[in-house]
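hey so i finally got around to running the thing on that chain from the lab meeting. sorry it took forever, my laptop kept dying and i had to restart like 3 times. anyway pasting the input first so we r on the same page abt which one it is
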Amino acid sequence: MEKMQNAETFFCSDSGEDLLNDLEKLIAEVLKDPEAFQKQMKKEGDKKKKELERIAGKKGLTPFLSRASHGIVHKDDVRKDETRVFIIRQTTVIEIDQNDPEKVLFVSDKLSNMCGAFFDHRGNRLLVFNTSGHAFLYDMATGDKLLPKIYLKASDLEGEGMAINDDYLWYLDKKRGRIKRLNLLDGSVENVLQDSSYKFIYMIQKEACIYAFAAPQNAEQSVKITRYQIQNGELIEHFSRLECAFEVGRLSPRHDLNEKEIIFSLEKWLSGVEFYVFCSEKLNLKLLCEVSTAEDMGYFCSYHTNLDAGQILMVLANRVLLVEAESGTIIKEIAIEYGANCLFLDQHTAFISTWEKMYKLVM
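ok and heres what got predicted. didnt touch it at all, straight out
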């Protein structure tokens, strides 16, 4: 059979008439032999993937762990010289050796649509959960399950926004705008924070405090930021203030590599991403820098900061950016397939996840 016309020529015509002719030819080829056309498209797609990997390899990006599915990376520092890395796949969460990424140290029980994990480094416990709010709790010293399957009574959970103290874990129920508490000893769940005037949309822990962001039910009101002190399993309101200088709906919080700073990204639709440093004493956000992402058409997937080295790692739709934190200048750009998440391991190494595989980036 003749080599089929590349579908990209469909977009290269000079006139509407030529465009229509190209479309008719393309449809005719598909109808003539659909299977052959599908094989040709797959061949072209594989060729593009290999080219991306070739380019990435030259810039210090090494693939490992294929079939990563969700490929989302989660990390917690136990000590400064020890990092534990967990990868969320489609139905399981695995722990890998950061020095030998192909080595799998732990595999969780299966849950459909697995979406996150939270590691308690003090208690050596791992909570894994799916999009429906079902979860398993493990003792990572033995790998044993501590409780039967747990139902967290919430969806759209995020490990980065969870908080833990002794035998209680707090998390955000975004759908209902409430903060809930899980008893890690018996698996029971209860609402602990809710407000008739505000809806909780973000929370993040720093030491023995939880910082909660609440959006108003009334659009004319300002966003409320509150610091809660954790005392004997209870959240005691310590300080709150109103803030209206940012679009809170597009904010995304994450801990810096040094675990001392909390960084917020703010997506500016079709133009760029702003990064803010959160001041936990004054409960406000200080602008760090802005990075232009106009060519990515708003597809901003993830980020991680390393402020000690003055760097931000950004994962966009089809590329990874290493950015200078203070100026927003792009230091390095690497083409990849569709991205998912990223993680600084130390000053010189990072993990990048896509929907197909994991990469190790040496800078």
